[in-house]
Design goal:
9 helices; eight-stranded mixed sheet; 11 strands; 20% strand; alpha+beta; Alpha-Beta Plaits; 3 domains
Amino acid sequence: MSQEISPDEFSNLEARISDIFQPDEVDQLTADVLRLEEQTSEPGVWKDREVAEGLISDLSVKRRLLDEVESLRAAISDLRELWQLARQLEDDKELASAAQELSALVSRVDKLEEGSMLSGEYDARSAVMVIRSGAGGDDATDFAQMLMRMYLRYAEIIGYKAYLLEASQAVGAGIRSATIRFDGRFAFGKLSVESGTHRLVRMSPFNSAGKRQTSFAAVEVIPLIESSDEIEVPESDIRVDVFKSSGPGGQSVNTTDSAVRITHIPTGTVVSCQNEKSQLQNKIEAMRILQSRLLELRRIEEDAEKRRLAGDVRASWGEQRRSYVLAPYRMVKDLITEHEENSPDDVFNGKLEGFISAGIKWRSQQNR
């Protein structure tokens, strides 16, 4: 017996799309696409390459979104007609096929809904993630390295470009810290829900008695600045140190002072970069990340002031984030969204979509 489909399921999907994008929003999206198409076809648009690339990127995002809305509506309408015909003919094979197609359409609407929640000022930008080991000795530095690998695998799975800008090796196992840049659509909007304290509970491989050990690591995610952002850093406010790279980077590693560390004296913010072979390239990248962190600090201060004026006493986003338990049972649980999964191996291999989707939805609900 094939899976039964209710006629209401088609109407519900159409209603969900209308809730996600109201008619006036679709009209505005259409107008934006037309405007951007005109701008990108103007003579001389490539005189300013950065501006032109920004316009093309914006056009691509909006056009893809508009195409998906129109495609979904057409697909739902077509599937409804096919389902009605199959039902009249009592064709179980076609009814089963319709059920599978409907499930795929539900998944597409879910992704459309999630994408509509990524409408923050910086959500569409590239992201910079900093991972730092916390309490727990060798277990903590090993855990930080596990998280680094997890996020690099996640980027690979969803098609983001990831660049390991800096990794500070620990004396024993793992790393003390790492800085990773992620380039991809909505990289910051998605990865920002990973910010906070992560905790690992396991039987320690570094303890001869095999006792259960709890260790911690902190994850910070900031949006990468763009040239239009107003964030000036006077030379007098920074100290630049150069040193030999301590990680992968080619033949220049440990032979030349190509790695760069920039300290912002007023805030104490420190940024390092050793991904590039030349000192100049590392300085440019480190300076961009410093500006990104200072911009994020400014945003946090502004948000804190808004909460103070509004009398908001809720815990700030991103404090206690997630627990990874490998003993005495196996489970990964997000402490904010309550989302949990029972396969830590899959999670550490980069399968984070469930946690990230839950985080985006939770954040959207808090902002209503």
